[in-house]
Amino acid sequence: MKADKIIAMKRQIPYHGWCFVCGPDNPNGIGITMFVDDDGVLTSEFTLNETHQGPPGHTHGGASAAILDEIMGLVVWAAGHKVVAANININYRKMLPLHQPLLRRHASPKLAREKSSAKEKLNWQIQLSL
């Protein structure tokens, strides 16, 4: 490792019991664990399975929408603001496969004075084992 390279420390974002996306107490939930570093960058790695299935072999659109909602909310929350999604518009471009590790990185949004907004594109990085 180079001496001039700075590695940001990651800390786990608290989860919420029965939350469908991040709650470990929900047996049918997605169970995502998310981390935030000192620069406000959120990361998460997870694998979806048949519990989250829509079309055969692929994730249900509602599950991916729930993940999007959680990510946008947590990015703004990690920046120190209370937030609720007032509107989510999604244009699906391709199906999200099951049983593929998914890695997400989310940068902190630019925050306005009274309104916070987060835009997130679900450009999933799929890591395939060959």
Tertiary shape: globular
Question: What percent of residues adopt helix (DSSP H or I)?
Answer: 10-25%
The proportion of residues in beta strands is 5-15%
Structural class by SSE content = alpha+beta
Mean pLDDT over the residues:
75
Strand arrangement, major sheet = 1-2-3-4-5
Work out the oligomeric state of the chains in this entry: single chain
Helix count, DSSP H or I runs of 4 or more residues: 1
How many beta-strand elements?
5
* N→C terminal distance: 28 Å
> What order do the SSEs take from the amino end to the carboxyl end, as H and E?
EEEHEE
Strand count, sense and closure of the main sheet? 5 strands, antiparallel
What's the alpha carbon Rg, rounded to whole Å? 16 Å
Low-confidence stretches: 1-6, 111-116, 120-130
Descriptive labels:
five-stranded antiparallel sheet; alpha+beta; disordered C terminus; 130 residues; globular; single chain
Structure explained in plain terms:
With 130 residues, the chain is of the alpha+beta class. 14% of the residues lie in helices and 15% in strands. The chain has one helix and five strands, in the order βββαββ. It has one helix spanning 61-78; strands at residues 10-12, 34-37, 42-46, 102-106, 125-126. A five-stranded antiparallel beta sheet has the order 1-2-3-4-5, covered by helices on one side. Strand 2 (34-37) and strand 3 form a beta hairpin. The chain is globular and about 40 Å long. The two termini are 28 Å apart. Residues 1-6, 111-116 and 120-130 have low confidence and may be disordered.
Quick overview of this protein structure:
With 130 residues, the chain is α+β, with helices and mostly antiparallel strands.
